[in-house]
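Deliverable D5.2: sample structural annotation.
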Amino acid sequence: MNKLKSTMASKRKAHKYWKGLENTISESKKVMEEQGVDILPSQKELIELGYSCLNIAISRYHGGFPNFREKHLGEKLLRKPSGYYTLENTIYESKKVMEEHGFDTLPPSNKLRELGYSGLSRAISIHHGGFPNFRKTLRWGMKSNAKHLTDLLSGDYPSLEDYIKVVVDRKKESNKIKLK
């Protein structure tokens, strides 16, 4: 991104030019080609390169950067969309990481971040009770899957999250009884 600002970036475009999706896609591809990159530069980089109008167009008229990158440039999303890390998705992503990297247990937060899974690490820490509690939930999710699947398919639970909450609440209650 160290190349000089493009002369194209400084030319003023016609009124409503940036509202046209094809114009924005075309300009995005020109920037990528000019900069010698395969992915669209970040918002900050576009501004630094003199493409603030392109930055605004993508944000204002074409659904924002993640949407634009994925739908119109065919780029893989670098981060999950807001609200993605429900308990069900977090369990799924955790199991996927463990399988892909050959882990028997969920690695610690720093290892997940090192491997490029900072979003997953953050979701576990902030939304799912931290790593020790989440590991318990994950272990529960990996035991007797046939029994859990039978319960889920019974139709009594609208989602995996609802089912997990019921089972976790039952476990908490049984632990209280044992402590008395």
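Annotation notes: Residues 160-179 form the longest helix (20 residues). The two ends are 64 Å apart (CA to CA).
The annotation will be released with the project's public dataset once the embargo ends.
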